[in-house]
Amino acid sequence: MRRDPRVVLHISKPATWSDLSFDCTAELSTVTRGRGDATSDSLVASYEEVAGKPHPDWDEYRQAMADEHGLIARVIPQSVVGQIP
């Protein structure tokens, strides 16, 4: 995505024959280096939003994200095609 930021986000629900494909542009953050950088703070906020609760050990989480070269990928939709019955 750094080389070519064009991406497609595809969402489908086979049970209802529904699908949407979004043509998007991706923006990638810098890789987190751990506690105290902006990417680490964004990863913490993202975790809480998805999980609906805090992580039991934020130091462990931040270190794992640094060890795994964690980053944030934001996709900005440009157009969409598909069907929703």
Question: How would you briefly describe this protein structure?
Answer:
It contains two helices and three strands. The protein has helices spanning 38-51, 58-67; strands at 6-13, 18-28, 73-83.
Tell me the fraction of residues in β-strands, as a range: 35-45%
Order of helices and strands: EEHHE
Shape: flat
Mean pLDDT: 95
* Biggest sheet features: 3 strands, antiparallel
Model description:
The chain has 85 residues and is of the alpha+beta class. It folds into two domains: 1-29 and 72-85, no CATH class; 32-69, no CATH class. It contains two helices and three strands, in the order ββααβ. The protein has helices at residues 38-51, 58-67, and strands at 6-13, 18-28, 73-83. The chain has a three-stranded antiparallel β-sheet with strand order 1-2-3, with no helix packed on it. Strand 1 (6-13) and strand 2 form a beta hairpin. The chain starts with 5 loop residues before the first strand and ends with a strand.
